[in-house]
Amino acid sequence: MTRKFLILLISLTSLSFLLFLSCDDNPVKPPVVVKEYKVPEITLIDPITGVPGQQITINGKNFGASRGSSFVLFGEVKPETSDYVAWNDSIITLKIPALALTGYIKVVVVYPDSTLTSQPVYFTIGTVVGPPFISRIKPDKAYAGDTVTIDGSNFLNQRDTNYVNLFGNKVLSGDYISWTSSKIIFRVPANATPGAGKIQVVVRNVTSNEFNFTVLQKVVIEPPVIDYIQPSTAKVGDTIRIYGSKFSDNRNYHKGYAVIGGVTVNDDNSFIDWKDDLILVKVPQGAKTGKLFVYKDDVKSNEVDFTLGTEAPKPPEITSLSKYEVKVNEFVDITGKNFGATKGLNSHVYLGDNKLSLSNVVSWSNTKISILVPSDAAPGAYELYVSVDGMESNRKSLIITETTKVYLVETVLIKAGTFTMGTSEDDLWGNPAHQVTLTKDFYMSKTEITQSKYQEVVSTWPDYLPDDTGPNKPANLTKWIDIVKWCNSASKRDGLQECYTINGDEVTCDFNKNGYRLPTEAEWEYACRAGTTGDVNFTGNLEDYAWIRTNSGMKLNDVGQKLPNPWGLYDMYGNAAEWVWDWLDSYSDTPVTDPKGPSNFEGNGKALRGGSMFSTVDEIKSWSRTDVNPEIQDRKIGFRVVRNK
Question: How many domains does the chain have?
Answer without folding.
Answer: 5
